[in-house]
Amino acid sequence: MSPVYYLYLAALLFTIGAAGVLIRRNAIVVFMCIELMLNACNLAFVTFSRMHGNLDGQIIAFFTMVVAAAEVVVGLAIIVTIFRTRHTASVDDASLMKL
Amino acid sequence: MTGLAAAASVTSSGEAVQFWILGIVAVVGALCTILMKRAVHSALSLAGTMIVLAVFYLANGAYFLGVVQIVVYTGAIMMLFLFVVMLVGVTAADSLKETLKGQRWLAAGLGIGFGILLIAGIGNASLKEFNGLGEANAGGNVQGLAALIFTKYVFAFEITGALLITAAVGAMVLTHRERTERAKSQREQSEARIREGKQVPPLPAPGVYARHNAVDIPGLLPDGTPSELSVNPTLRERGQIRDVSGESLAELKALEQRSEEWLGRSAEDEPKPPASGGAAPKEHKEGAKK
């Protein structure tokens, strides 16, 4: 097996995540799909790091993780705020800037 | 996995077996994430996929990232997701109504097309051989990463710190709610309750205390019917109420019938089929008086 298969898997996971973002209406699940896409990218970075034989890819994956953690905190806070004002977590109902 | 050769093109067969087994698990987990109806199930499937990815990181020589993946992603981020799912609750169920006609199928088709594009791109790239991390990891994976973070990427690292602080403050600002009007006193609340005329006394407690005291079992009203009010509205909305009034009434009825037979009284009023409605308990009371 060649490490390229990890790239195929990463592409597949990224695709599934992207399709999930388009298909699902629940904001939390959409957010989870974004996390899935970020994870798929990380897998690609780690695989490329192995292919090139240096650690730069792993550093980028590490920074991606940090940014993802920050993003999750803010994103979930936004979801909770939207849920408080609109009593729904559906992305369709958040169509107005202000209630 | 070791990657000692300068430019190998095949990994060990053990890693291949691991890849094919865990890869399928990862894809199934990802599919479950987007196909499961409830957000909790999605979150758990995603956690499974993330654990599999952590194993893949380890297999790819990213030992630090593998551990961080488990600690940060499955440990912290997914638990945060679960907390929010609990906060947002039942009403977060996905609406199945399509706002745009045919949007789902179009999205699925686009997803498949995008996947084909990506995979074809990777297939056309010349990625036949790889170097392996044996040399880069020679002094230890964590040491190598640390050396890079604190030299070449030190500014990115510093900016990351600023980002984390901003995110923490942002989350607090977003979720903190300033109280704009005075809180209602207990007296005002009770007056408002009486004015509205709904449920003046405290809500009834759940559970049938002689048998069950779980919160998902409604308490029984004097006439034997389950009291909807005694169960948490969340459980009510999910339909997770366990109604035991029927079975317990039936058991009680059987018990009384047996005792009457033992006492030698003929059950002239033949036992009606036990219903969970209001008729059953009255019969019991009459039977007990006899």
TrEMBL record, chain A:
Keyword Chaperone: no
UniProt xrefs under InterPro entries: NADH_UbQ_OxRdtase_chain4L/K, NUOK/Mnh_C1-like
Gene Ontology cellular component list: NADH dehydrogenase complex; plasma membrane
Entry similarity comment: Belongs to the complex I subunit 4L family.
Gene responsible for this protein: nuoK
EC nos: 7.1.1.-
Parts of the chain that traverse the membrane: 6-23, 28-48, 60-83
Native species: Streptomyces inhibens
Protein name (database record): NADH-quinone oxidoreductase subunit K
Function: NDH-1 shuttles electrons from NADH, via FMN and iron-sulfur (Fe-S) centers, to quinones in the respiratory chain. The immediate electron acceptor for the enzyme in this species is believed to be a menaquinone. Couples the redox reaction to proton translocation (for every two electrons transferred, four hydrogen ions are translocated across the cytoplasmic membrane), and thus conserves the redox energy in a proton gradient.
EC top class, as a word: translocase
Quaternary assembly: NDH-1 is composed of 14 different subunits. Subunits NuoA, H, J, K, L, M, N constitute the membrane sector of the complex.
Compartments it resides in: Cell membrane; Membrane
GO BP terms: ATP synthesis coupled electron transport
Main location: membrane
Pfam families xref list: Oxidored_q2
HAMAP family the record matches: NDH1_NuoK
Keyword Kinase: no
Highest taxon above the source species: Bacteria
Membrane topology note: Multi-pass membrane protein
UniProtKB/TrEMBL annotation, chain B:
Top-rank EC class of the record's enzyme: translocase
Region (Disordered): 178-207, 219-290
Enzyme Commission number, as recorded: 7.1.1.-
Organism: Streptomyces inhibens
Keyword Signal: no
UniProt entry keywords in alphabetical sequence: Cell membrane, Membrane, NAD, Oxidoreductase, Quinone, Transmembrane, Transmembrane helix
Recorded catalytic activity of this chain's protein: a quinone + NADH + 5 H(+)(in) = a quinol + NAD(+) + 4 H(+)(out)
Bilayer topology: Multi-pass membrane protein
Physiological role: NDH-1 shuttles electrons from NADH, via FMN and iron-sulfur (Fe-S) centers, to quinones in the respiratory chain. Couples the redox reaction to proton translocation (for every two electrons transferred, four hydrogen ions are translocated across the cytoplasmic membrane), and thus conserves the redox energy in a proton gradient.
Compositionally biased tracts (Basic and acidic residues): 178-198, 235-245, 253-272, 281-290
This protein's name: NADH-quinone oxidoreductase subunit J
Cellular component terms per the entry's GO annotation: plasma membrane
Entry's localization field: Cell membrane
Family: Belongs to the complex I subunit 6 family.
